[in-house]
Structure formats: structure tokens, C-alpha cells
Backbone:
């Protein structure tokens, strides 16, 4: 080898090393470091080339070459070139790993269901994920570099200004503490606000623990708050219902006694007597009170149901003529009934009451006329719907919708519309029990009701009842049985209310019945044990002190299996009624009742095949 080939090879290796160092700029992203290294190596190569060029351009002979020095230079150049080539894959791997994790981080941040944005030390936005941009209505570029407080968090929920120094987000920046806030409000680009829960966490350097920014993670909690409000409303309605049911129970006994006393006196006074009209008014007012207690029982879900499998379309069709008379000629009634409508299991009479009450409510909302639409359809309520509507069970349902184009309601009115005695009508124009009754019937039937309304835009009530399987029963009016009111049988009356018991006994005695009376189960057992002739019928209140009516029936039927039983009550319990549904083969009379209704029901039980079997579990 010629001696001068050694420095030439060194120069080539140095140029190669300088080129490779520049290549690592792209691989590592470190511009300054690798450019300086490449420049230093390139400078060494250029300096060596200038020396070699001077040798070859001189007319003199090439000076002697220090082989040892040049060999060392060659080895160093070779080490630099080989070393840079060898470490390149490591840097490539590191870059790929960094890119992989960066993509993974970006994917996580971009896929997160929560909004995420980062702030620098000055409270300006440095990062925004797509969810944060979507929830706030901004493009990410519109938020980057802007003060987050001025853009998203400038005002409290009530509209009052929110000073930046009181902002929990900035507290995380200044104090370096994580702050978690519930039920705050952020503002969208369009000026609307939305409720959020958020956490502001300081970003600190791992080495020195110095705060360099803050990351804020927030969640839109509109749906959660809606569900909470629905749940609280349901709890409130449940509490009111319990109170209303208890009141109705006691009030029913009073009304039954008032009606009974008035009817007994009316029997003594012919219609032409001067006091007869006053007695009629007493009965009329008592009937109005009885109607109110029935509505209270419906709202509190204590009304007795006699469910059947039927098609709601048939009920709507049967009510068509009555509804048109009810709403008046200036309101157009439109029915949109699905021909493929599935059946439901409920009490048809109560469904009629629901439709009538909603129609009356719609009529009152359209004093100048309008359109009332009744619609039925098969619907499937999925999991997503159930998650945003409290107490809804996913599955197939039948929808009954009643819509009007009347005055509509604001949100405050809608929140109270199903409460008993709440009304927007003038004083004396309504009891405020119509929609409360609707609510109770729907709930007791296993369904749900939702209201959709805007002021001036009308109102729609949508009722969802679970679909039912089984044979559909036709809806038809039942003929009134013949009235055989007199009797001679022996009846044991068990009622703890003294006034009502007296009224019942006098009413039965006047019709020829032999009447025995007891105030509780213990007295009834004593009378039964000491009787000298058979007792044909036991007329017993469901709710009695010390021993319930069902327990008394079980004990008496153990002594006489053939005794017939007629229950009466103004309030249901689980002895003969389960979830509001009357047990099979149970004769029942709902308080308050007229004397005629009492006599008719007793005659029906005595003449027919009614027999009370011991209730399950008693």
C-alpha cells in the first residue's frame, strides 16, 4: 500500500462519519447536537484534505509520512464511522418506540370519553383532545393559546362572574395541588352552559418536582343530573303517594259512614219531605269526596286492579264518541292507531280513565280550539333509553301518546305536573288530581309516563306499557245483574269503625238480614263459637287491629269451610291484593260504597259461587 493511501482513507471515513451524523438528525430529532458533531468531523476531514492537496500540488517531493500518526488517525476515523453506523439502529429503535408510545398516548387521549386539556403556567391552553373540543363546540386551534378561564370557565352556574383567583383550576397551578370539583359549569362556544365534574392536576417535572402546567379532565354530567332529578322526583312522588294512601284509607271510612247515614234517613223521609233535598245534597257531596279518594288511591297505587290482556286500540275506538263530546266541536280529534299493535295487561277501565284525564287536560290547554292526537305504536326501549330514563326496563312496549297543540308548559311546571293537588288552573277550576291519577295508574300497571312540552308549542304525554302475551279479551260492556236486594240470611259484620259498622248493620237489617256485629277479630271468633245457627256470610274489613281480616277468614274457615266471605276496604294490603291486583276468587267491595252497592254485592256473593280460599302465606 502506498503511504499516502492511509490519510486518504481517513478522510473518506471522516466524510462518511459526518454524513452519517447528519442522517441521525432525522432519526433522533436532535438537530443541534448532531449538526455540531457532523460539522466537527467534516472540519477534520476538510483540514486533512487541504493538507493532502498541498502535498500533491507541490512541485517538491511528497514529504515523508509518519506512518504511526496516520495509522492512529485512520483507526480513530474508522471507529467514528463504524460507531455511528452501529448506534443508528439503536436510535431508530428508540424513535420507533417513542413514536409508538406517542401514538398510543394520542390514541388514548383522542378516544377518551372525558374532555382533556392542558394549561401552561400562565393558564393558557396548550393541548385539547377531540372530546373537549366537541363538548365545548370549539376547534382545537381556537382554544390553543387562549386563557381557559376567559373562554370556558368565566361564569358560575347562576350567571355571576367567577373570579380567576377563586378558580380551582388556577389553584392547582399556583399551589400545586389536585382539585376535584363536582357540579360546576363550563361554557360552549355558542354561549350555552353545561354541567361538569372535573379534576385539575398539576404537571410536575419528575426530577425537581417543579410545576410546569396543569391537566384538566372533565365530564359532561347532564345525563347523570337528569337521572338524579328523575330519581328524586320518583322518591317524592312515592312519599306523597304513601301519605295520600293513608289519608284515603281513613277518609273512606268517614265517607262510607256519612253516605250510609244519609241513605238510611232518606229511607225514612219520603221525597216530598222538606229535608229530603238536603239529604240528597249530603249524598252528592259525599260522592264527590269518594271520587277524590279514588283518585288519591290511584295516585298512591293502592287502587284495586282487575287486569286483562287487551288491545288499547279497542279502548280508544270505544271511547271515540265520548271523547268528541268531552273535548267539544272546536277541537279536532285525530287518532293514529297502529294496525299491528300488540296487547298489554292492565285494567281497561283504568286505561279509559287515563285517556279521559289526558284528553280533559289537553282540552283545557286549548281554550280557543286546536288538535288533539291519540297515537298508538309498538316500540322497543333499548338499554340506551333505559340509562337516561329512571325506572325504565328495556324491552318491547306499547306506546300510547296523547298530544295537543295548546299552550304548553315550562320546565318548572313539568317538574310538578304529576303532584296531587298541583294545578295551573284558576282557584276552584280543578282539583289537581287528574294527572296525578294518570301517573298512579300507569305506574301501578308496570309502565312509565313521560312529558314533552314547550311553552306555546303544545304538549305530548307518552305512556309505555310492557307488551303482554296471552289471549286478547274483547272489551265489552257488562249487563247489570238483576237487583235482588232483600234477604233473610245471617251475616257477621266485622268492622273496627263504630260509625261505619252501625250504618252497615242498620242497612242490612232493614232489608231483612239477620246481622251479627263485631269490632275486631277476637269478638268475631267469640260470636262464631257461641252461635246457635249457621252464619251464611262474613262481611269483613281487610285491615283490622290485632288480627287482619285475612287471618280471621282463615280461622273461621277452619271451623266452617262453607262460609262465604266478602271483603271490604278503602286501602289495599298484601293479604288479598298483590301489587294492586286482586287475588282470584275473592269478593271485594271498595270503600266508600253506597247502601245499594253493598246490598247488590252481598246478594251477588250469596246467590253465586263466590268462595274465599285462605290467602297464600296467611
Residues:
Amino acid at each position: 500500500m502506498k503511504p499516502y493511501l492511509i490519510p486518504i482513507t481517513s478522510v473518506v471515513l471522516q466524510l462518511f462519519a459526518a454524513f452519517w451524523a447528519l442522517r441521525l438528525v432525522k432519526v433522533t430529532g436532535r438537530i443541534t447536537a448532531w449538526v455540531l458533531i457532523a460539522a466537527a468531523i467534516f472540519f477534520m476531514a476538510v483540514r486533512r484534505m487541504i493538507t493532502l492537496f498541498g502535498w500533491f500540488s507541490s512541485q517538491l517531493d511528497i514529504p515523508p509520512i509518519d506512518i504511526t500518526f496516520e495509522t492512529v488517525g485512520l483507526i480513530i476515523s474508522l471507529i467514528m464511522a463504524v460507531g455511528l453506523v452501529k448506534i443508528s439502529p439503536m436510535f431508530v429503535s428508540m424513535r420507533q418506540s417513542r413514536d409508538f408510545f406517542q401514538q398510543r398516548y394520542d390514541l388514548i387521549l383522542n378516544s377518551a370519553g372525558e374532555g382533556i386539556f392542558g394549561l401552561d403556567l400562565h393558564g393558557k391552553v396548550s393541548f385539547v383532545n377531540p372530546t373537549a373540543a366537541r363538548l365545548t363546540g370549539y376547534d382545537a386551534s381556537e382554544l390553543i393559546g387562549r386563557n381557559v378561564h376567559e373562554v370556558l370557565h368565566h361564569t358560575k352556574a347562576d350567571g355571576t362572574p367567577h373570579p380567576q383567583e377563586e378558580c380551582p383550576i388556577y389553584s392547582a397551578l399556583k399551589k400545586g395541588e389536585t382539585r376535584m370539583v363536582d357540579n360546576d359549569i363550563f361554557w360552549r362556544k355558542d354561549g350555552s352552559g353545561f354541567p361538569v365534574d372535573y379534576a385539575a392536576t398539576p404537571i410536575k417535572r419528575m426530577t425537581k418536582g417543579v410545576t410546569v402546567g396543569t391537566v384538566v379532565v372533565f365530564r359532561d354530567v347532564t345525563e347523570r343530573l337528569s337521572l338524579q332529578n328523575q330519581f328524586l322526583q320518583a322518591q317524592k312522588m312515592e312519599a306523597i303517594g304513601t301519605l295520600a294512601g293513608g289519608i284515603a284509607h281513613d277518609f273512606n271510612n268517614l265517607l262510607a259512614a256519612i253516605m250510609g247515614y244519609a241513605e238510611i234517613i232518606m229511607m225514612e223521609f219520603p221525597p216530598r219531605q222538606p229535608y229530603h233535598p238536603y239529604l240528597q245534597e249530603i249524598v252528592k257531596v259525599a260522592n264527590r269526596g269518594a271520587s277524590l279518594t279514588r283518585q288519591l288511591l290511584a295516585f298512591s297505587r293502592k287502587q284495586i286492579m282487575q287486569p286483562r290482556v287487551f288491545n288499547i286500540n279497542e279502548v280508544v275506538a270505544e271511547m271515540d264518541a265520548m271523547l268528541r263530546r268531552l273535548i267539544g266541536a272546536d277541537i279536532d280529534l285525530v287518532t293514529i292507531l297502529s294496525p299491528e299493535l300488540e296487547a298489554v295487561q292492565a285494567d281497561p277501565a283504568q286505561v279509559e280513565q287515563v285517556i279521559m284525564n289526558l284528553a280533559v287536560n289537553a282540552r283545557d290547554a286549548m281554550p280557543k280550539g286546536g288538535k288533539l292526537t291519540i297515537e298508538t305504536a309498538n316500540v322497543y326501549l333499548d338499554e340506551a333509553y333505559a340509562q337516561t330514563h329512571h325506572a325504565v326496563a328495556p324491552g318491547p312496549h306499547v306506546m300510547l301518546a296523547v298530544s295537543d297543540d295548546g299552550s304548553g308548559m315550562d320546565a318548572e311546571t313539568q317538574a310538578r305536573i304529576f303532584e296531587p293537588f298541583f294545578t295551573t288552573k284558576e282557584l276552584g277550576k280543578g282539583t289537581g288530581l287528574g294527572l296525578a291519577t294518570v301517573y298512579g295508574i300507569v305506574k301501578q300497571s308496570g309502565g312509565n309516563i313521560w312529558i314533552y312540552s314547550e311553552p306555546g308549542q303544545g304538549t305530548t304525554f307518552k305512556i309505555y306499557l310492557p307488551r303482554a302475551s296471552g289471549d286478547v279479551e274483547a272489551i265489552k260492556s257488562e249487563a247489570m245483574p238483576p237487583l235482588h236486594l232483600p234477604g233473610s240470611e245471617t251475616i257477621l259484620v266485622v268492622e273496627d269503625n263504630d260509625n261505619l259498622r252501625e250504618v252497615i248493620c242498620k242497612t242490612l237489617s232493614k232489608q231483612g238480614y239477620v246481622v251479627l256485629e263485631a269490632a275486631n277479630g277476637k269478638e268475631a271468633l267469640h260470636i262464631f263459637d257461641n252461635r246457635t245457627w249457621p252464619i251464611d256470610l262474613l262481611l269483613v274489613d281487610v285491615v283490622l287491629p290485632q288480627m287482619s281480616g285475612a287471618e280471621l277468614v282463615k280461622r273461621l274457615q277452619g271451623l266452617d269451610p262453607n262460609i262465604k266471605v266478602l271483603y271490604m276496604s278503602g286501602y289495599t294490603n298484601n293479604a288479598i291484593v298483590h301489587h294492586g291486583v286482586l287475588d282470584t276468587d275473592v269478593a271485594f267491595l271498595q270503600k266508600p260504597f253506597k247502601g245499594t252497592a253493598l246490598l247488590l254485592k252481598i246478594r251477588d256473593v250469596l246467590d253465586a259461587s263466590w268462595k274465599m280460599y285462605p290467602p297464600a302465606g296467611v
